[in-house]
């Protein structure tokens, strides 16, 4: 069985075909600059040169047409006919409170994606366009929506509610939803396999640290708490996002810098975080390099990131009433031994002790804690695409 995975951004689209007999990726690709001058599609098949299509693509439907053309291309394609694709899994950012699992797309699902454009204005419209384009171009093919928010919908109300007047929860559904759910779900499945115990017997803190970062406290396979909120802005400091700050900063800046709500939103989402503090970059490789060369603000940004991860890690171990394993994933979590070492430094008193030799790994599964560490610490590369493909397969074969 072959599953097509589509991840639509506002002006870009990533795709992948996974053969579910062995979970191998047959091809992957990227369409950039949809609706902007310079649209192009880059199609990658392992062992072959990239196939690039440069042609105007005015919308997501246009882009998906070209994706299907590339998939079916005589020379570069990986399928002979669309019949070979059993289903299409779509990554969707925000599913609100009702989308507690991945789901076969119908009108209600599309209405929900539309409703939650209010909290995912940059992603949900593109996600929906991707689904509608597939419905038009490949009619009858089952489309499955896989939400970044679903995995977290097991949080209890006292965890997800915000302490503001209750009427705004009732009126607008303002509450914590959490994101990176597909990644945390993958970790919630994979970590127990690596540890060799059923997930029902394990409490895990999953640390997804990348451009966007979030932690999830996972109790017996279910999310109990997570650091992102109504939107992916809450929680940790990130590449360009501020994470938790006193909400008064918002209104103060709005008044004193004369910013519109939209400008303030851009400031906190795109110009803050590690980039805003360092003035160097949002990329942690650049920051580590700059800090090593003596750039104080790059050092400050890294120190601020580390203390925030520690803060949530400690909080989540407390919320879980103890924890068996901490897992690092995402670009930073998988690759940066120094960030992992700094985050875990001086945590022996709560049972975390890193082995520097074992921690010297990049991008592969590894136990990095020492034998006498009460809490095991792992690196597990995330695989959101496989998770989307598995959910899609499960739903279309039900
Ligand atoms: P996204 O959230 O966009 O999926 P990723 O999970 O790919 O992002 O993470 C990107 C981040 O990972 C960047 O900040 C990048 O610098 C960081 N990263 C990747 N490799 C390394 C490395 N070797 N050392 C430090 N940081 C790294």
What do you see in this structure?
There is one protein chain. The protein has 2 domains: 2-147, ATPase, nucleotide binding domain (Nucleotidyltransferase, domain 5, 2-Layer Sandwich), CATH 3.30.420; 197-384, Nucleotidyltransferase, domain 5. It has 14 helices and 14 strands. It has helices spanning 60-72, 107-115, 124-137, 157-160, 166-172, 181-195, 248-256, 261-270, 273-278, 284-292, 296-319, 330-335, 337-344, 384-397, and strands at 2-8, 13-19, 24-32, 40-44, 51-54, 85-92, 103-104, 143-147, 203-209, 213-219, 222-226, 325-329, 366-367, 376-379. The longest helix is centred in the C-terminal third of the chain and has 24 residues, at 296-319. Helix 1 packs across helix 3 and helix 6 (181-195) crosses helix 14 (384-397). The strands form 2 sheets. An 8-stranded mixed sheet has the order 5-4-3-2-1-6-8-7, with helices on both faces. A 6-stranded mixed sheet has the order 11-10-9-12-14-13, sandwiched between helices. It is 37% helix and 19% strand. With 398 residues, the chain is an alpha/beta fold. The protein is globular. The protein binds adenosine-5'-diphosphate. Residues 210-212, 239, 283-285, 288, 330-332, 335-336 line the site of adenosine-5'-diphosphate. Homodimer. Pfam families: Acetate_kinase.
């Amino acid at each position: 069985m072959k599953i097509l995975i589509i991840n639509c951004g506002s002006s870009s689209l990533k795709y992948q075909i996974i053969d579910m007999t062995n979970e191998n990726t047959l091809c992957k690709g990227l369409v950039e600059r949809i609706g902007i001058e310079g649209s192009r599609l880059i199609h990658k098949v392992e062992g072959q040169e990239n196939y690039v299509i440069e042609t105007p693509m005015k919308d997501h439907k246009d882009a998906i047409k070209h994706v299907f053309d590339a998939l079916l291309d005589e020379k570069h394609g990986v399928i002979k006919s669309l019949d070979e694709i059993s289903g299409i899994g779509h990554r969707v950012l925000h599913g609100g409170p009702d989308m507690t699992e991945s789901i076969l797309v119908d009108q209600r699902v599309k209405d929900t994606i539309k409703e939650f454009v209010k909290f995912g204005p940059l992603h949900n419209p593109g996600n929906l366009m991707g689904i509608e384009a597939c419905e038009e171009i490949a009619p009858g093919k089952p489309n499955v929506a896989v939400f970044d928010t679903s995995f977290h919908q097991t949080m209890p109300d006292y965890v997800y509610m915000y302490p503001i007047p209750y009427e705004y929860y009732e009126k607008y559904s303002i509450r914590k939803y959490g994101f990176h759910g597909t990644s945390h779900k993958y970790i919630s499945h994979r970590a127990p396999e690596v540890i060799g115990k059923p997930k029902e017997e394990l409490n895990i803190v999953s640390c997804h640290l990348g451009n966007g970062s979030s932690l999830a406290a996972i109790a017996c396979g279910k999310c109990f708490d997570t650091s992102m909120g109504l939107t992916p802005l809450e929680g940790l400091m990130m590449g360009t996002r501020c994470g938790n700050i006193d909400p008064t900063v918002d209104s103060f800046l709005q008044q004193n810098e004369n910013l519109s709500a939209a400008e303030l939103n851009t400031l906190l989402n795109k110009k803050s975080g590690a980039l805003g503090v360092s003035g160097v970059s949002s990329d942690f490789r650049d920051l580590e390099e700059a800090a090593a060369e003596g750039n104080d603000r790059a050092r400050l940004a890294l120190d601020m990131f580390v203390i925030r991860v520690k803060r949530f890690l400690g909080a989540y171990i407390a919320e879980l009433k103890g924890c068996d394993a901490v897992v690092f994933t995402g670009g930073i979590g998988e690759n940066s031994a120094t960030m992992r070492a700094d985050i875990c430094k001086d945590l022996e008193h709560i049972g975390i002790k890193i082995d520097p030799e074992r921690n010297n790994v990049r991008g592969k599964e590894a136990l990095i804690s020492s034998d006498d560490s009460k809490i095991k610490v792992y690196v597990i590369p995330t695989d959101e695409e496989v998770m989307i493909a598995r959910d899609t397969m499960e739903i279309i074969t039900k």
